[in-house]
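Weekly modeling sync, notes
Attendees: AB, CL, MP (scribe)

Item 1: holo prediction request
CL wants a bound-state model with beta-D-glucopyranose before deciding which constructs to order. AB pointed out that an apo prediction alone won't tell us much about the pocket. Agreed to run with the ligand included and paste results into these notes for async review.

Input as submitted:
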Amino acid sequence: MGGAFPDGFLWGVAVSSFQVEMGRGGNADQSDWWAWVHDAENKQRGWVSGDVPEEGPGFWELYKSDFKLAREMGCNAFRMSLDWARIFPASTEGVSVEVHRDRYGNIEKVWIDDRAMRELVTLTNKSVARRYRQIISECRRCGLEPMVTLYHWPIPLWLHDPIATRDGVAPEGKRGWLDEGTLVEFAKYCAYAAHAFGDLVDLWATINEVKIVSDHGFLDGGEFPPGVNDFEAFMVVMKHLSMAHGLAYEQVKRWDQASAGSLGPSSVGIVAVLHYHEPVDPSNEADVKATLFNDYIFNEWSLNAVFRGDYDMNADGLVEGNEMLPNLVKGCDWIGINYYMRMRVMHVAKGGDPRLDYGFAPAVDPSDIGFDTYPEGLRWVCDWAYTRYRRPIYVTENGIADSADSMRVRYLTGHLDAIQKAIELDGVPVRGYFHWSLIDNLEWSSGYKVRFGLYSFDSVTKRRIPKASATVFRRIAKANRLP
Ligand code: BGC
């Protein structure tokens, strides 16, 4: 240990809108995620914890003091997201735009002109737009470079009825990422966001974790809306989310041409969650095969789509005919890596689709929720992503569910050491590190008992309480080096 980070390295913490904003009024109740966590049937099935966002830390009101905390912790950057359903609580489908399709019928481009933009502006919730401007301005004022994620999971209810989709009765147009129409509306929302906040934001992240949204929502059925379990649906969502990155990229580049700081006018990346996969028994061919499939489908597939236009819809590892869509490649200025853990993969015969014949061994060094702590894996995924796609990297999330705060310091220093080595020894341009998270927050369907924060908060007063690990983070970030 003891290595230094490059000058200008970004030190940040990360949060997302749905997980932290509510708790002090300002409820955002128009999204699929809101409906999902409040649904009685989901609670009864044990698919959601029963915890709700309106008991959250209240960042919507308390952002000023949270930015202050981040600044005091040595941060010079802050990752947050916008809630699409807050900004557009009512449908934008009536705003006509030009939709161009390729010869296979895929949406290739959405063209939004000034008239359409004026209409979008009239449809926004004005006080929400004002508040987001206040939040991002304050972030900058505190000396924190904002990284703004456009899609960190809630979708407006007018586009996705997650309960009807779960029950197989949602009509087209209400099935979220299963429907192509969602791509068009997403392009409009991204154009609006770039237009409205572009003068304050240079660093934009399009999609947070294609993999998690697709597999938790459409393959593992239950934890995430809409709780579907269907490989075909999973692949459609993987495709649509990868396309959504390209559409968002184009809109942000077009509508944000203002520099807010030195990184501007707009630097646009995608955030991928990358796991370090390893066969339980490297001498067992079936375990190795299952590991390679996990690597391919979960780490590689959507990045291949974004960077190469490879849309391998039958997931056979070959990109043939109409799966080759270089026309859908729009650009990606950097890769955001969310790295949490190692997955030890083994073959498990399930009697269904043989590709899905895999399972995971219990963690060697488990967090509160069984994630397998493995810092070396972060160096590996940084090396892998850079070697393969040649873009600068931000580690956009990394953290541990550790309610006792007894593992976090080791986790933090181990992972930072891995990044430092990737930079210094392997020559990977890692430009920043965002710890997940500043504060304990609503861990989606699992609720508040899962605690990733450097700070906890009092559920009644909302007072922030530092954990010992926050001190260690501060020491490292301020010194720009490991102890
Ligand atoms: C997500 C976060 C989440 C974290 C911890 C990431 O997949 O982006 O929203 O809280 O993991 O599970």
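Recorded for review: The pocket of beta-D-glucopyranose is lined by residues 16, 19, 208-209, 212, 273, 338, 397, 436, 443, 452 (CB under 6 Å).
Action items: CL to compare against the apo run; MP to circulate these notes.
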